[in-house]
Hints:
- It is a single chain.
- The chain has one domain: Sandwich (Jelly Rolls), CATH 2.60.120.620.
- Helices cover about 25% and strands about 20% of the residues.
- It is globular and about 55 Å long.
- The chain contains nine helices and twelve strands.
- The protein has helices spanning about 15-25, 35-50, 60-65, 75-80, 85, 90-100, 230, 235-240, 245-250, and strands at about 5-10, 25-30, 70-75, 105-115, 145-150, 160, 180, 190-195, 200, 210-220, 255, 265.
- By secondary structure, the chain is of the alpha+beta class.
- Strands 1-2-8-5-10-4-3 form a seven-stranded mixed sheet. Strands 7-6-9 form a three-stranded antiparallel sheet, with no helix packed on it. A two-stranded antiparallel sheet has the order 11-12.
Amino acid sequence: xxxxxxxxxxxxxxxxxxxxxxxxxxxxxxxxxxxxxxxxxxxxxxxxxxxxxxxxxxxxxxxxxxxxxxxxxxxxxxxxxxxxxxxxxxxxxxxxxxxxxxxxxxxxxxxxxxxxxxxxxxxxxxxxxxxxxxxxxxxxxxxxxxxxxxxxxxxxxxxxxxxxxxxxxxxxxxxxxxxxxxxxxxxxxxxxxxxxxxxxxxxxxxxxxxxxxxxxxxxxxxxxxxxxxxxxxxxxxxxxxxxxxxxxxxxxxxxxxxxxxxxxxxxxxxxxxxxxx
Length: 277
C-alpha cells in the first residue's frame, strides 16, 4: 500500500498537529488560512513575481537545487505585509516551539520564502532540511518547516514530496517510490513537517501552470538561518511589526541560561530590541 499523509481540519489544535507529526514527521492542515488572506497575499506578490529576474544565487550548485524555472522571493515582511499574519500563525509557532524545545529554548525564523515553480521544472533531490547544518549533531530536529499553498496544488503541479516516518530512519536510508507522498493541497492549506523528515519540491509536469507556495521555517535560536533577515528587511520596517514578529526575525537576545547555556546575538553588548525602541 502506498504511503499517506494525514489531513487535519482547520480547527485542529497544536496537540493534534504534534501527535501526527511525532508519528509521521509531517501533516497537512486543510484550509488553515482564509481565502481572503490568500487572495490579498497573492495580490501583493504579483508585481514582485512579474519583475523576478530568475534564479541567480551566485552558485551553480545552489541554482540547480533552487530550480532554474522557479521564482523565489524573500524579505517578505518588507515586500508583502500579509506575510506577517502567516508567520505568526499560532499553530506554526507553537508547534515549532514544542518540537524544538528539547534542543533550543527559543526559535527564530529560518526563512519566509515564496516558491513559485514554473512549468517543466524538475523535482528537487530528496533531502532533510536539518542537513543545512550538517556539522551539528543535536538529539532532535533543528527546524520545523511549513509549506502554505497559495494556489490549489496537485502532484502534477509540483506538490511537495514527503516521506512519512522518515524522521525515524537511519540517516543513510533512502525511500522506495511507494514510500513517497506527493502532496495535494487546496489554496490556504498548509503542510507542517519536521527538519528530519525527507522531502523535496516536486516536478511541475504541466505546460502552462505555476505552483505557488510559501515556505515558512522556524529553527533553533542558536542557528544561522537560511534567510538573512537583517539584510533583507530594513530596521524601519522591523520597528512597525508586532513584538513577536520582531523576535522571530532575530531581534531578541538568545537566552539559554535556564538550561545551562549562554547568550547569543548581542547588539553592542545589549538586547537588540534596543534598536527598535
